[in-house]
Amino acid sequence: MSNELFSVEGKKALVTGGSRGVGLMIARGLVEAGAEVVISSRKLEPLEAAAAELGEIGKCTAVQADLSSQEGAVALAAAAHERFDKLDILVNNAGANWGAPLEDYPDGAWDRVLDTNVRGVFQLTVEMLDLLRASASDDDPARVINIGSVDGIRAPLTESYAYSASKAAVHQLTRHLAKRLASERIAVNAIAPGPFPSKMMAFLLDDADRRSMVEQQIPLGRIGTPDDVAGLTIFLASRAGAYLTGTVIPLDGGYTGAT
Question: Chain-centre distance of CA 138, in angstroms?
Fold first, then answer.
């Protein structure tokens, strides 16, 4: 088996929400594997810090962007066009969450979460199509990797109604885009992570008792690691994953498959 099968050396990638959490794990994995990566995020200071850290390992630059609006997607796409003449890998990871009791759940939460998590994924993918098409080939399609969630597959533990609905929508959008773009040799897949260390999960994982409760529900008995999500991303982005499109892959230690 050739070492090139799992190589992303020299590929051009854009990772949204790449300054922290799962997005940073993915960006780091791609940079370490030799890809040239642009990361984006709403907040400039942590974004620049993450890009500087990754820049010590390989090629990484930062572009500030708010993907809750079409203007933000257009601006990020324009910045990507200035840097790349093609895009091999688009990772749609940027997301928002909102938790509140059922009868107190605010209407504004739906706008914020769905605008970022669903519309933002769609709009940025459309804006990047010309660069993705420039990369696409029969043997090595361009890749769009959407970050969904196990909360879009199973009902979550928390009262995050807009978030779980948005991630289920991301999974279906992935399938729809995959069907539409397959003829253009653009493969579209989704990763549905379970519990990973992140700001979004800190309220559960930073408390020893709560963390233990979460781990007990996972058949493999542990929280996800950076290598877990980076490894799956690299598989999907490399020649090894070239014949895969329209899939939603739970990355959850067996959580969604447990009865």
Answer: 24
Residues 242 and 9: beta-carbon distance below 8 Å = no
Domain count of the fold of the chain? 1
Spatial contact of 205 and 26, defined as CB atoms under 8 Å apart = no
In a domain, 150, yes or no: yes
| Predicted confidence (pLDDT) at residue 1 exceeds the cutoff of 60 | no
Question: Is 147 within a domain?
Answer: yes
Over the range 84-109, which residues count as b (16 or more CB within 10 Å of their CB) and which as e?
A: beebbbbbbbbbbbbeeeeeebeeeb
pLDDT digits (tens, 9 = 90+) for 5-22: 999 999 999 999 999 999
One-character DSSP codes across 139-166? SS-EEEEEE--GGGTS--SS--HHHHHH
CATH number of the domain that residue 236 is part of: 3.40.50.720
**Residues annotated as catalytic (active site), given as ranges:** 163
- Which one is predicted more confidently, 198 or 67? 67
Cα angle 112-142-28, degrees, rounded to a multiple of 5 = 65
Q: Answer yes or no: is 259 within a domain.
A: no
CA 207, CA 209: separation in Å to the nearest integer? 6
pLDDT digits (tens, 9 = 90+) for 28-68: 999 999 999 999 999 999 999 999 999 999 999 999 999 99
Residue 230: inside a domain = yes
Q: Provide the residue range defining the domain that includes 37.
A: 3-251
